[in-house]
Structures are given as C-alpha cells and as structure tokens.
Amino acid sequence: MKTVLMVAEKPSLAQSIARILSRGSMSSRKGLNGTCSVHEYTGTFTGQLVRFKMTSVCGHVMTLDFLGKYNKWDKVDPAELFSQAPTEKKEANPKLNMVKFLQVEGKGCDYIVLWLDCDKEGENICFEVLDAVLPVMNQAHSGEKTVFRARFSSITDTDICTAMVRLGEPDHNEALSVDARQELDLRIGCAFTRFQTKYFQGKYGNLDSSLISFGPCQTPTLGFCVERHDKIQSFKPETYWVLQAKVDADKDRSLLLDWDRVRVFDREIAQMFLNMTKLEKEAQVETMSRKEKAKQRPLALNTVEMLRVASSSLGMGPQHAMQTAERLYTQGYISYPRTETTHYPESFDLKGPLRQQANHPYWADTVKRLLAEGINRPRKGHDAGDHPPITPMKSATEAELGGEAWRLYEYITRHFIATVSHDCKYLQSTISFRIGPERFTCTGKTVISPGFTEIMPWQSVPLEESLPTCQRGDTFAVAEVKMLEKQTSPPDYLTEAELITLMEKHGIGTDASIPVHINNICQRNYVVVESGRRLKPTNLGIVLVHGYYKIDAELVLPTIRSAVEKQLNLIAQGKADYRQVLGHTLDVFKRKFHYFVDSIAGMDELMEVSFSPLAATGKPLSRCGKCHRFMKYIQAKPSRLHCSHCDETYTLPQNGTIKLYKELRCPLDDFELVLWSSGSRGKSYPLCPYCSNHPPFRDMKKGTGCNECTHPTCQHSLSMLGIGQCVECESGVLVLDPTSGPKWRVACNRCNVVAHCFENAHRVRVSADTCSTCEAALLDVDFNKARSPLPGDGTQHTGCVFCDPVFQELVELKHAASCHPMHRGPGRRQGRGRGRGRRPAGKPGTRRPKDKMSALAAYFV
DNA sequence: GCAAGGTC
C-alpha cells in the first residue's frame, strides 16, 4: 500500500484536519521531537487504497542568517551586508529537529500533500518542507505527480473535504516573495542596526540600551509614538468661547442646550451672539424628531481587536495578552488565538460553544434566554481564510483560571455571546430651538431594548432622561444663556490600542508580530509604558526618530513597509522577477545606507544634547594595562570599561555586578582584574578586561573570564583552579571560585551548575594531585578549628570532592541564581534541598567527571 | 549582539 504524507503548519491543525478527513478513526502518536504528532489512517487517494500520515511542522522550518564569519561585528563593515555577505538557511528551531523529523516520517512515502496555511508564509513553508522531504521519498514513476497543495479557507468539514478533492500545486512565486522579504529584512535591518549601535555606543556612555536597532516594522512603530510626542510638544492652547442655554422643561426640570455654532475663537463675536440671545425670554421649537437607532453588536473577535481591548480595558500589554491567550488555547478554553478573520463560516456551530456557557454563574440567564428565543446571526465580517474568530470552547470559572487568564477569558466569552445577541435599540430624540437669531439643539437617548449591551455593560447607552414631547412652534422659557471661556487641550500620548490600530492600518507587522514590535521598542528603551498604557518616547527614542527625519525621513515613515511589500507582491503575482526585485530594492537601501552613514553627524548633533560622551561617564574602577591610568566603569547598558587616555572601550559580561579584584593584574597584559558576580547566590569569577575582549589564546572565546583562561601558571586561570568536568553540561569545567569563602563554591565555567562545598573552611586550594578514581583535581582544605566537620581535632584534609567520603557529605549541587527571576530560562531546575541534589557517588550509569587534564586538553583543540 | 515572520 502506498503512503501519503500530509503536512500542516502547526500540530493543532494537523489534528483537526486528520480528524475531519479520517472521520475520527485515526491512530495518533508523538513524533521524535515530542512536539509534533503523527495521525495515521487508511483511505483512498487517486483511486487507490493508501495509508495517510498527517503531521505538521511548527511554523517556519528554516530561518535566514549570514554565514558565521559575517556575524562578527568588529570584523565586518555593515555596508558589506547589502551584497557581499552570503546568507544561508539554518534550522529555525534546532531543538525541534524539524528536518530530521520530516525525513523520518517522509522516508518511503509516495505522495505528499501540503496543508500549510493559505498565505504567502505558508506557501514558503511548503517549499521548506519539500526541501527536507523530497530527497527521502520514493521516486515517482515518470510523469506521475507526487506533490500536491491543499487550499482551504476555513477549518470546517466542507472546506477541508473540498480542498482534498481539488488538490493543486504549491505556488513558487508566492514562496519566492517571502524569500525576498526575508533577505531584505535581514540585510537592511542588520546593516543599519550594527552601524548605529557601534557608532553611538562608541561615543556615549549613558544611552541605556544595549542595542540601537533599526527595522522596517519597529522603526515606524516608534515613529508613531514620537509623532504624537511632537504634536504634544508643539501644541499651543487656544482660547475659545461657547454659548450655553438652559430652558425650563417642567416645573422642576430644565434642559441644557448645545449651541449649533459649537464654538468661536473670537471673544467679541461670542459676546455679540450672547448679547443677541440673552435678552430673549423664550426659546422656540423649530423641529422635534424621534428616531429609532441601533448600536450594532460587535463583529466576531480577531487577534488585533482582542489585543486592543486587552490593552485599553484590561490594562494588559499585547505581548502578555498574547501569551495568556496562547495558554488558554493550549488548555482548550478558547479557539486558536491568532486570526485576522471576523466572520464565522456558514457551517460554524455557534450554538455548541454557547451551550457550554448555559450554566455559567455570571451569564447563564442571558445565554439560556438566547438559546430559548433563538440566537441572532453574527454580523458579516471579514474572512481572511485563516482561522475562525476567537471563540470560547468550554466554560471556565475565575477560580479555575486565576486572575489575568480569567479576565481575558471573560472578555472573550462576553464578546462571543454579544456577537450572537441582538443589536441595542434606542430612541434618539432631537429638539432644535431658536433663541433670537441663534439655533440650539438638545438630544436625548432612551433604550428600547438593551440587546448585546446586557452582556457587555461597558458598551451600554448611558441613561438619560427622556425629552419632553413638543412640536414646531412650542415655546419654552429661557432660564439662562451664558458664555463659557474654554481652552483647546493637547492630545495625550499614544495609547497601545491606538498604536495597534495605526500599525494595522499601515500594514506594519501582522497579528502575530504586532505585539513583538511593540515589545521591542519598550525593551530597547525607546518608549516607556505610562499609566493608562500610554507610550511615552524616551530621549533616545525621540533623538532616533528626529535624526531619521533630518537625514532620510523615509526610513521612519509608515510607508517604508508597504512600499517594499508592493514590490514583493509583484514577485508573488509572477509579474516581476525575484532576482531583479531583490537586487533593485537592496540597491535602493544600500544607497540610503551610505547616505545615512555620511550624514550621521546630523543625528549625532541631537545625541550630543541628550547624552554624555563616554569619557564623561562612569566611575574610575580599574587600571588600564597600557597607560596604567584608571579606566571608568560605565554601568548603563551595555556595561563596559572605558579608558579615556587610550580611547578604548572594553565590554563586560552583562547582567551582573563588577568590582575591583584586589588590584591583582593579568600577567599577560598588566590590566587590573575585576570580579564579575551574578548576585549573592550566584556565580562569580575574576576577569581581565583586555583578555575578555581580545582573547589571548586561540581556544578562548570573547566575553569570557579567567575561569576559561588556559594560561598555564596564572593563579586565577582555569589551569590552576579547574577541578574536573561539569556534572551536567558537555563542555564545561568545574572551577573553584577563589572569592567564595567562607561558603566555598565550585562553579561550572559554561553552564549554571554551582556546587556548595565547605561552609567553615578558611582556606581552599586546588592541589596539583588528582584523584586516583576519577582523576579530578584534589582540594586541599583548612577547616575552621571550632567548627571542623572532620573527626577528632583535625582541621586539614585533602581529597576529591566527588569521591572522598568526607567531602561527599559536604558537597551540595545547585544552579546559580540569576540576578532576577525573569532572566532564568524555562525548565531550568532550581537548587534542591540537601541530599537529593548531591552527586550520587559511584552509582552506575552516572557520568563521572573526566580527568582534569583531558578536560583541559579539550580547550586546546 | 542585529530584522521579521512563522509557531510552542
């Protein structure tokens, strides 16, 4: 029997599609990466009985990057990134082992059906999948077609089944347009980012951003925020005047009337109108109208609208809202949260999800009534052909979901119920009056039926008293006419919700990437989120945008993305050649880049005003090995040492603190050593600022400390303080932390393993002798006389931390704590209680530390 | 160390 491999874009879709096509009779298993599943069933394909294997990727299989040597910032001129620097495709997520997985599953298959999302990115992923799988599939008989593309517009039985019988071919042009986009974004973004970062970080000490980035999406996003800032700055309040009239409606009620001229900006003219009306005793009714109006129920929910409401009403940032929504999705509470679609397919079962909510403590009444009286068809929205609108899939309570997730879920559910509710109907009454020569109006609204506003009370029509019934010619006594002086007020900073709307309008980013761009400009310290989730640009953000305006405004205009996308669409439609468009666009931006580089002084003038030069920043800390003067420690991101005499800057490891290390010097370059520490519970090691930036030995990497230095005799080096191979990671060596006493520690120089050794020793040295069992270096320990753990009166002991029975009892394995819990990666085990984390000595199957010399030898390869 | 786009 022949086998048909089918591939969707994400695991959840593979499952839904397989369930539809197999009519529920499939067998499922996890793939080798633990993330993607394979669903198998038999059926017919091109008239024969076959075995179907439905699986998925996880988004893009490959990502584009420069060849390794072009990623060395100080060796490559950013201008080379436009053409000379070759690019290569790498696996997008090496942990998922996607290529291997696809090849294992694709081996021996005869046909492949591509079920990737029906957009350009999906089309591109089709070819990534084919590149991986075609080489291992069975050879086709001559002329036989083996590659098919399924095109579907929603995940419904009819659409999926129709797609299966109308298979087409993947569209190479669409895929190529994505290849072009990837290459443009990479080359342009990296060139500008590297140039700006190096230029400004080399001059200023208090930029407070480790990166001065540029990108066709993030830069215009920042541009919107600064544009609003500029409007606020340049705003000049103007005084204006309005007339306000009050008439008596009944004995104890008066109506406030609005002036039809709204306002005037000339006091004397306002005064003239006041004079003409204030003596009038009566207001005459010119017209009275009553109209039934409706406030429409909302369109079904898509991602962007969810993010807007999450920010403006729930006070949740887009990134956080998206993470919360993803969790609700993977736990089965809501449907797929990334969708542009606001329209339910005709066949969509709306009552199913609604019935789920029929017993919910908060909205059972509304839902039951809707089910009994019949739901309203949702409004016709936009169908982007991706996924159905965001819909609650099962009922949940606050206790079950907890705080944030509940609030988002509650909103999604109320919104869903609203979409199948009726519109809100209200009566709008308008009375138009004349007082002397001037006209005034009064409007009032009364609710006829609340409709959806019952479930979305924040959308309710505000309660107002109904207006009196009257007709043309009726008169009301004027109680008062007065003139009010007011001032125009500046706009406020842009809210996140407004920014999302602007980005969507200008096609900057996608539903999935909009939160990422907003997050980027926050993390790079270009804007800060203020109360009400308003985005206020920082000095750095303002200077950058004003600089672009000065040099080349196109770099920050919202059209930069759409202009390029227009070109890319020509490729997708087959109207332009991929190479030509790519070459031409790169050429345009290369010219822009050179012009930008030549004109950078224009941006620098603005920088000078807000930021201090390197030489004027920081505090003196350690001595330079070249001129022996003090270098200044610049704490602001990225932290570094600067020698103003030599005009050299030495970057330091980030996310830690730096101290002078006993005025000790590096034997190689005479620089004073500093001590890097990740916090009281973490790791620390000495570091030579010069070696760390210019590694003295071929095997040493940049950015490392003395604990990775292979100097044969320096007392701070790995050679002198190294003990043995790390018990967890492949390449690390456990090194004695010479500063850790009296709570002595040994820490891996690569991963975050830390072993707490001896609490009450006043001296610990690494011996030249090695353990006869495991060949790790022995430790020579002098314990405190009063609190020695040794039997009898002994205070001195030499032994192996792994094998010596005395030491084994004293060693406890932990993981270094980072400065802040946020910096800890996922899934990292934290230090455990005494005992459990201890190394199980000599237990079969556990990895023994390699001997010290062979571990060291690995460094010299 | 960089972009933007998928997805986990």
Automatic annotation (TrEMBL):
Keyword annotations from UniProtKB, A to Z: DNA-binding, Isomerase, Topoisomerase
> Per the UniProt entry, what is one GO biological process?
DNA topological change
Query: Could you say which EC number(s) this protein's record lists?
Result: 5.6.2.1
Q: Bias category Basic residues: which stretches?
A: 821-850
Entry's Gene Ontology molecular function annotations: DNA binding; DNA topoisomerase type I (single strand cut, ATP-independent) activity
One Gene Ontology term, aspect cellular component:
nucleus
* Topo IA-type catalytic domain span: 171-593
InterPro entries reported for this sequence: Topo_IA, Topo_IA_2, Topo_IA_AS, Topo_IA_cen, Topo_IA_cen_sub1, Topo_IA_cen_sub2, Topo_IA_cen_sub3, Topo_IA_core_domain
Where is each Toprim domain found? 3-153
Which stretches does the entry tag as region Disordered?
820-853
The kind of enzyme this is, by top-level EC class, is: isomerase
Domain of life of the source: Eukaryota
What family name appears in the similarity comment?
Belongs to the type IA topoisomerase family.
Q: What is this protein called?
A: DNA topoisomerase
Origin organism of this chain? Tursiops truncatus
Q: Which gene encodes it?
A: TOP3B
